Structures are given as structure tokens and as C-alpha cells.
């Protein structure tokens, strides 16, 4: 049996409540071996209030919760009958699992991706920044943090050298 990610539909605004209810039900109904992770996909949103920058969390898919599980009659029943759940997303009555690339894209967007970019850099290597506020600047790698998929690099801005932390995906090798 293969564990997959499924999307459940909830009443809008009840996503976190459904997640909490489902987590409680896992223990009480003894299905921790069939249902694993429950996620409400969120992203940071930057707002400006009273002239101040404020970061808030925003639901990426309002009305939906992701559940990683083995699809059995028992696990389906537990999820389907959780208060606030209106059903699984799928065709007819059969839930359709998300494709692996869809799951990776969502997890990556949330910063929870398990797959790290493969590209490795070397200390002292010259790179070009291709994403974020320093796009188009060249940088020199000073530190590498593969477990986080990040590098620290030296950029020259306004005639001064500055250390910046960048995601692997924000830099590319020169040449």
C-alpha cells in the first residue's frame, strides 16, 4: 500500500479547526499508522499598516486541507466524518491523490519541501543572483548550508561588501 497526499474540502474558514479535529481523531480512533501529516497550506503575505511592514500568514487554498495517508476504508471514514470536512477532492466518490510534483511544489512553497535542490556550489565561487531583491548582482559564495538549501554570499552594493543569505534557487553559476 502506498501513502499519498489527498485534498479534503472543508467549510471555508474552518481549515485549522479541521486540522486540529482530525489530529485528535487520529489518536482516539487509532489510525496513526494510516494517516500521517495534515497541512493547511499557508504563505507569508507582507502588509503595510500604519506605515509599518507586517508579515501575516495567508491560506494558499482557502477551504482545502492536505492529508498524507494510506487510503483504506477506515482512514477514508475517519477523515470524511471529521467535523467541518465536506468531502475529498476527486472524481465522483473516489478520492484522487495529488501527483508527486504537485505535492513537492506545495511543500516547497510552504518551505517544507523534502527535496532539496541538487545544485551544489563551492566556497569562493562566483555566482549571479537570479531571484529576490539582489537580482542581477554577482556574488561570491562564503558559506554553504546544504541542509537548508541556502548559501551566504558577498555582494558589492553602494561600494560596500555585504553578506546576504540566498536560497540555492536564487543563484546560478556564472559561465
Write structural notes for this entry.
With 175 residues, this protein is an alpha+beta fold. The chain folds into two domains: 3-109, NusG, N-terminal domain (Alpha-Beta Plaits); 126-173, Roll (SH3 type barrels), CATH 2.30.30.30. The chain is 18% helix and 43% strand. The chain contains three helices and 13 strands, in the order βαββββαβββαβββββ. The chain has helices at 15-28, 73-80, 100-109, and strands spanning 3-10, 35-39, 42-49, 52-59, 64-70, 85-88, 90-91, 94-95, 126-129, 138-145, 150-157, 160-167, 171-173. The strands form four sheets. Strands 12-11-10-9-13 form a five-stranded antiparallel β-sheet, with no helix packed on it. Strands 2-5-1-6 form a four-stranded antiparallel β-sheet, covered by helices on one side. A two-stranded antiparallel sheet has the order 3-4. The protein is elongated and about 65 Å long. It starts with a strand and ends with a strand.
Write a concise synopsis of the structure shown.
18% of the residues lie in helices and 43% in strands. It has 175 residues and is an alpha+beta fold.
Key phrases:
single chain, 175 residues, alpha+beta, Alpha-Beta Plaits, SH3 type barrels, four-stranded antiparallel beta sheet
Amino acid at each position: 500500500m502506498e501513502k499519498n497526499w489527498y485534498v479534503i474540502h472543508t467549510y471555508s474558514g474552518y481549515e485549522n479547526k479541521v486540522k486540529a479535529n482530525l489530529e485528535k481523531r487520529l489518536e482516539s480512533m487509532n489510525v496513526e499508522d494510516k494517516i500521517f501529516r495534515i497541512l493547511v497550506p499557508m504563505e507569508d503575505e507582507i502588509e503595510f499598516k500604519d506605515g509599518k511592514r507586517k508579515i501575516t500568514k495567508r491560506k494558499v487554498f482557502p477551504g482545502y486541507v492536505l492529508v498524507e495517508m494510506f487510503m483504506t476504508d477506515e482512514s477514508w471514514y475517519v477523515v470524511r466524518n471529521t467535523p467541518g470536512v465536506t468531502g475529498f477532492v476527486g472524481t465522483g466518490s473516489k478520492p484522487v491523490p495529488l501527483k508527486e510534483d504537485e505535492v513537492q511544489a506545495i511543500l516547497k512553497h510552504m518551505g517544507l519541501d523534502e527535496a532539496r535542490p541538487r545544485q551544489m556550489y563551492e566556497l569562493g565561487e562566483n555566482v549571479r543572483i537570479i531571484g529576490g531583491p539582489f537580482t542581477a548582482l554577482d556574488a561570491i559564495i562564503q558559506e554553504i548550508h546544504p541542509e537548508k538549501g541556502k548559501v551566504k554570499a558577498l555582494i558589492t552594493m553602494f561600494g560596500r561588501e555585504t553578506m546576504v543569505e540566498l536560497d540555492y534557487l536564487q543563484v546560478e553559476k556564472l559561465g
